[in-house]
Amino acid sequence: MKETTLKQIATELGISITTVSKALKNYPDVSESTKKAVKDLAIALHYTPNSFAVNLRTKESKTIGLILPTVLHDFFSKVIDGILEEAEKRNYLVIILQSNEKYELEKKQIDLLLSKRVDGILLSLSNETGEFHHLKTIFEHNTPLVLFDKIAKIVNCSKVSINDKKAAYDAVTYLIKKGYKKIAHFRGSYMPQNSIDRFLGYKKALEDHDINYDSSLVFVCDNNTDFEDGYENARKAIAEQPEIDAIFAVTDLVAIGAIKYFNERGIKIPQQIAIFGFSNWFMSSLITPKLSTIDQPGFEIGRTAAAILFDEIYSKKNNLPIVFQSIELETSIIERQST
Amino acid sequence: MKETTLKQIATELGISITTVSKALKNYPDVSESTKKAVKDLAIALHYTPNSFAVNLRTKESKTIGLILPTVLHDFFSKVIDGILEEAEKRNYLVIILQSNEKYELEKKQIDLLLSKRVDGILLSLSNETGEFHHLKTIFEHNTPLVLFDKIAKIVNCSKVSINDKKAAYDAVTYLIKKGYKKIAHFRGSYMPQNSIDRFLGYKKALEDHDINYDSSLVFVCDNNTDFEDGYENARKAIAEQPEIDAIFAVTDLVAIGAIKYFNERGIKIPQQIAIFGFSNWFMSSLITPKLSTIDQPGFEIGRTAAAILFDEIYSKKNNLPIVFQSIELETSIIERQST
C-alpha cells in the first residue's frame, strides 16, 4: 500500500483537503459528522501525519542523540536502559551512535546528529578526547548537551557522573583498614577524567594514611581491552613487585583479567593477593572468588542525564533560563570474597 | 546562537535567497566569487541544510528503527554493534527502542517508528508475541522489515537467525557421545521460536540416539530472569531427579545460574553433573568452571540483518523487486571445562 495522504482522504469523501486537515485537528468549523467520516477513513487507511512536515512546523524533532564510547559494555547497557525509560515516558526517540573511543568519530557523530536537528545530545566522551572544540559546535547550534560518566570538568554544560575520586579513595581506604600494606593500582589510560580521578583517589588515600606513594606500583591499562590489560598487568606486577599484597583495579573487567591470571598460577585470592574492582558489573558476583567492588549506578546515571536533558529542551522551547547542573551520584563499597 | 537560515546569509551579503540557495548547490549560473562568499559565510555561521525540509523532498529519513526485547544482554549488545557498523557505512541513523519482552510495548514502538517514517525496521520479537497482526501495519506502510534472532517463521519478510534446532541437536549429541545418559533440558518459555526450536533439537537428538524422551527432565525458565531461573531449576532438578548427569541450558545465563547453585552445594562440575550453555556469552569463558556452549554470532546477526534491510530500502527506492531472504548463520560447539 502507498502512503495515505490528505488528498486521498479528501478525494474519497468528496471534500477539500483543507476540510480534511481541519477535521483531523478538531477545528470547530467542521461538522461532527464530517469529522467522524474523516477520522474513520484515516484510521481505515492507516493515515499517519507526515512527521517531517510536523517537525518543520514545530521545529522539534522529538528525538535526542546518544553517543557512547561503545555499546559492548554491561555498564553502558544499563545507561541505555535508564535513558530509554525516560525517553519512553515523554514519547521521545533516541538515536544511538558509538565513537569506538575515537575522537574523530565522536566529532563526526556530533555533526551527524546536529544535521539531523536532534532536540538534544547525551554524550559520554571517548578515551581519546582531550580537547573540546567539537562540543562548541553543539552550543553554537543552541542544542542542549548533557555529559555523563566520562565527562570533562572544563566544559560548560550539565554533567552526571559519580565522584570517582571519592569512590577510589573509599576503596583504597577500605583496603588499608583491612591491613594491606603494598597496594598496587591498575589504572586506566591518561585521558578520561574518571581514570584520572580514580588514580588521584588512590594516591590521596595512601597519603592520608601515611603510606608513601610509589609510582612503580601503578600499572597502566591503555589497550582498550580491559580484560587482557588486567591479565597482562597481573603478570607484570607479580614479576616486578612480588611483595604487592593488594590491587585496586580501575574496572571490574581489569580486576577479572587479573583474577584469571592468579587463578591460573595458583596464587590464592585474597590470601596472597587481594583484588578490588570498580563498577559492580553483573558478573563480578558470579566469578570465583566473587569480586569486591564499587557499585556504580549505570541505570541511574542514564536516567538522570536524560531527565536533565529533557528539562533543558523544555526550558529552551519555552524561553526559560537554563541552569546547568553537575550531579554526582552516590557509590558504595560492595565487600565480597576477593578482599 | 539562533539557527542560520538562507535568509540571513542573503541579507548579510545583499543578494537574493535564490542566489544563496543556488550557490550552495553549485549551480553554474552563479559566479565563483559569489559561491565562495556564500560558502564561507555559511561555514562561519554554522549553516546546516534543514534536514526535515530535505526529507520532505526526498521522502527518505535516512533513519532505521531497531526494536529489541532488552538492551541488558551481552548478546544484544553485540547485535547493536553489528547494526551500527552497517548503518555507519551508509550514513544511516538508528533509533533504538525496547519492548521489555511485552507484546503491547512492541506494538506501540512499531507505531511510533512508523509515525516517524523510518526507512526500515529491524525487530527481534518479544517473548510475549504470539500473534503478528501488528506487523501487518508495517507492510501496509510499505516499510521494509527484517526479523532477527527471535523471529516468527510464518511472517512473510526477511529473517536472520541461527538454526536453533540444529545447534541444540549438536549440543545434546555432543553430550550423548561424551557418555552422559540422563540429560535434562532447562528450556525457555513456550513462546519465542528459538526457545521452541532448542527444545525440539534436544528432543530429536535423544530420539536419534535411542534415548527415551522424558518430559519430567524438562524444566521451564519463564521468569525472564535467566540467572535465577537457572539457579532455581538446578535446585529443583537435583531434588526431583537426582540421577540427572547433564544439563543442556537454553542460555549461558541459565547455565551460569545452575553452576552457581552446584558450586554452593559442593556438587562437582562436570564430575557429578555436566552443564552445557547456549550463546557463548563473554563471561562463559571466565567463570569457574569455564562453560561449554554454542557460539551464537551476535555481531554477525546484527550486521547481516542490517545489510539485508538496507538492500530492501534501496530496492524499494529504485522500484526494484524485493526478494525476501531467510538467512541461518553457522553456529559451533565450544568445548570447555563444564562438560
UniProtKB/TrEMBL annotation, chains A, B:
GO terms for molecular function: DNA-binding transcription factor activity; transcription cis-regulatory region binding. InterPro entries: HTH_LacI, Lambda_DNA-bd_dom_sf, Peripla_BP/Lac1_sug-bd_dom, Peripla_BP_I. CDD domains: HTH_LacI, PBP1_LacI_sugar_binding-like. Residues 4-58 form the HTH lacI-type domain. SUPFAM superfamilies: lambda repressor-like DNA-binding domains, Periplasmic binding protein-like I. It holds the Pfam family Peripla_BP_1. Signal peptide: none annotated. Keywords: DNA-binding, Transcription, Transcription regulation. Gene3D superfamilies: 3.40.50.2300, lambda repressor-like DNA-binding domains (1.10.260.40). PANTHER family: HTH-TYPE TRANSCRIPTIONAL REGULATOR GALS (PTHR30146:SF109), LACI-RELATED TRANSCRIPTIONAL REPRESSOR (PTHR30146). This is Transcriptional regulator, LacI family.
